[in-house]
Amino acid sequence: MIERIARRFEGRWLQGYARGKLRGDPVFAAASDLVKNQPLPVLDIGCGVGLFEFHLRECGYLAPLAGFDFDAKKIAQAQRIAAAHYTDVEFSVADATKPLPASPCGHVILFDVLHYLDASAQRDLLERAASRVAPGGFCLIRETPRDASWRFRLTQLEELFVHAIFWMKTRAVHFPSADEIVGPFARRGFSIETRPLWGRTPFNSHLFILRAPSVV
Predict the structure, then answer these.
(1) What is the rounded distance in angstroms from the CA atom of residue 130 to the CA atom of residue 120?
(2) How confident is the model over 40-58, as pLDDT tens digits?
């Protein structure tokens, strides 16, 4: 599956990136395992080149998938692959600080997005994301919460590196605390779970599993 996805990208660098992320980043398997038993539509905010959507489709996930990112070059790669190989997968260029693209309520995904926004924009995005989660659905946020750990300091350095090589167009602006991340969901009655998700990496990644109340 990993090779099949990776070879659909153009150029050795992107193929290597896709291969390395799918093999080494635990977020794909962790998130897929959570949503697979409730196949709701998925909205992926800051989807990059669409790796999570392609992973879900290869795992047999059949619900509609939509992702957006402000990096037009990444979206062009995702759109080309989706058009050629996957059905009901849509990608668009959009800014996370603007109104969310129209799509059905379902699961909402935010992987490594928040720290590129200031604190005010983060709060606004989290409120909008929470409003788009279907009853019983998940908002899954992978983020680097601000703390005093060595992992956090190393993650700050890594963010400087990915910006320096132009993979990320913007610098990290504000690393939120765990309370800042979960606050808008707690106020809406979501259940909250946090798991360390650094896998074999030295980075301070955590998965915030936020589940909307079911309609009784």
Answers:
(1) 16
(2) 999 999 999 999 999 999 9
